[in-house]
Amino acid sequence: MHNYRPAPVLEALGVCSEDEQLYRALLARPESTTTDLANDTGWPATRVSRHLRSLLSLGLASRMPGRPARYFPAVPEAAVELLALRKQAAIVEARVGASVLTAEFRARHDAFTVIRGVEAVAQRFYQAQQCAQDEVLVLDRPPYVVVPVEARRAHGVTYRTIFDMDSLSEPTDLMAARSTGCRMLRDVPLKMLVVDRRMALLPTSHDVIVEVGPSSLLDGLLRLFDLLWHQGSPLSPTPSDGPLSFEDQQLLSLAAAGLTDQAIARRLGVAQRTVERRMQRILRALDATTRFQAGLRAGQRGLLV
């Protein structure tokens, strides 16, 4: 076992390669002692003990009663599900904290301005983007108020947009959203446009927006965007010379976002049978047995970002 090191598949869920290596050793020999694992991995006992503690904290292993201490691995499917839920916990934490931010939002009148009227709202969205120097961040979900014009992209301004999955209901919508810096997420919690991380516009209705200036509220909104960005699925896979074509990467990105074959076929404008056939080819190309495993391996190879 000393020379066999399969490619890691759990790094995307926060498991380091050495922890995964020990987890695989434990899967191969359940009820192992520290000495057994040291022999199997070729590691010193102190190193094995350190990574065993990590596996216990991650829920990938449990200690059995009795002496000498023996360890049993968690069932992979259950362990991966637990790790995935922990990844989602950061977003849950941010959304729970939104109530605190709302209280501050209402208390700090000096940190925000309310703008009313359809024309005034459209004008402010346009002006805000025209003033952008570095970056514009967008959370986008229906119903729509003002679509970002991305007028400053030609001037070196970076746009990053997170679309709600329900906003891309037709193939034409997906085509319009394929620009660099677009991701898709289920249940985007609010609509927002942030300019240079110093000012945010929050639509509250079709003719009212709140402009938020530098404050802890703005800091919280930025943290929420960053958390959602890391959870989103890219809409524009990076073309590569690897085992997947650009179309395959795009299909896998949509599958990773949780869309069914039928929904993917509708978004891409192809037959469902075509989606199923291409997905089987993707699994073979990545030597994966499940879509989840394929998504992990594609992400580790930089095929989805």
Describe this structure in words.
It holds the Pfam family TrmB. It comes from Kribbella yunnanensis. This is HTH luxR-type domain-containing protein. Residues 237-302 form the HTH luxR-type domain. It is a single chain. With 305 residues, this protein is an alpha+beta fold. It is built from twelve helices and ten strands. It has three domains: 11-83, Arc Repressor Mutant, subunit A (Orthogonal Bundle), CATH 1.10.10.10; 97-232, Endonuclease, Chain A (2-Layer Sandwich), CATH 3.30.870.10; 246-300, Winged helix-like DNA-binding domain superfamily/Winged helix DNA-binding domain (Arc Repressor Mutant, subunit A, Orthogonal Bundle). The strands form two sheets. The chain has an eight-stranded mixed sheet, sandwiched between helices. The protein has a two-stranded antiparallel ribbon with strand order 1-2. The protein is globular, with a radius of gyration of 23 Å.
Describe the SSE topology.
Elements: H1 17-28, H2 34-41, H3 45-58, E1 61-64, E2 70-73, H4 76-96, H5 98-107, E3 112-116, H6 118-130, E4 135-140, E5 158-164, H7 171-176, E6 182-185, E7 192-195, E8 199-205, E9 208-212, H8 216-231, E10 233-234, H9 246-256, H10 261-268, H11 272-285, H12 291-300
Parallel strand pairs: 4-5, 5-6
Antiparallel strand pairs: 1-2, 3-9, 4-7, 6-10, 7-8, 8-9
